[in-house]
Amino acid sequence: MPAPEIVLDWRGLPDRLRGCAVAIGNFDGVHIGHLAVLRAAHAARPDLPLAALTFEPHPREHFRPEDPPFRLTLLPAKARALGAAGARILYAVRFDAALAALEAEEFVEQVLHRGIAARHLACGADFAFGRRRGGDVAFLGRAAEARGIGLSVVPHVADAAGPISSSRIRRALQDGYPDRAAAMLGRHWEICGIVSHGDKRGRLLGFPTANIPLDGHLEPARGVYAVRVRLPDGRVADGVANIGRRPTVDGTELRVEAHLFDFSGDLYGQEIGVGLVAYLRPERRFASLEDLRAQIAADSAAARAALAAAGPAAGC
């Protein structure tokens, strides 16, 4: 599926970008609960273009800017995941002081009705919006009906541990369980970034790495992972990656260093996505570079085994 067209301003839109069936929410991670909302929007009005409406930055980043990074998906990755699920348009509504001050009624009238001219909406059962989260799904239903807009409210999607949520996925990743996160996401969680030049130490050790910063992503458990890496041309390469500060070489920057198996090519300046498949061990300091080299070889073997057990790559 092609990526959806990203719309950054809901005002003054041409007709081709209005009048959709719209799934609405933060969609951080685009997990299987979010996908149920998207499917509900399409099922209710399959005759309409399918769109999603989200907020950028995430409202929590606006209200609590001092918090450490927590995002599961930044906007490009969110767009890819929603596009893969069928969304053709992504309204990335700017969340700023002006939007935060809009009363719920004003949000429905100005953004949903006059702005994007939504003809059907779908949201989760706990969706809240407007100034001080003054609008809930009951309010949205009344306000939408008054404007001739349909509404589908989607119950929580749950597994044996309870309702699936972005918060649960974050905890699973921070605790070192990328497999549990993947079960809730419906795919491996990936960290996306532009490959940058490092100190070339991996190459000297015989294990060249593609290095990307965490940037605004959530920091998962530090350590070594079996990974599947989405390459710029769409191929997926198996590998092993360290997430952390590289204590053996006195590293200070928190970053992802991925060694791709059986790969040769220049990735500098290009975006890759490092999908976490299995957590192998915590990050630790080694007495020498030779000890580190031996451990990387062992980690590579462990990663190959974990990836073989996980089965063929189905994309990140």
Main features:
10 helices; 6-stranded antiparallel β-sheet; Elongation Factor Tu (Ef-tu), domain 3; Rossmann fold; 25% strand; 2 domains; 6-stranded parallel β-sheet; alpha/beta; 316 residues; single chain; elongated
Helix and strand content put the structural class at: alpha/beta
How big a fraction of the residues is strand?
15-25%
Gross CATH architecture of the largest domain? 3-Layer(aba) Sandwich
Overall pLDDT score? 93
- Note the run of SSEs as H and E: EEHEHHEHHEHEEEHHEHEEEEEH
Q: Largest sheet, described in full?
A: 6 strands, parallel
- Taking all Cα atoms into account, the compactness measure Rg is 21 Å
What is the CATH first-level class name of the largest domain?
Alpha Beta
Q: Outline, from the CA principal axes? A: elongated
What proportion of the residues is helical, as a percent range? 25-40%
Number of helices: 10
Biggest sheet, spatial arrangement of strands = 1-4-3-2-5-6
Assembly state (oligomeric): single chain
CATH topology of the largest domain: Rossmann fold
Distance between the termini: 14 Å
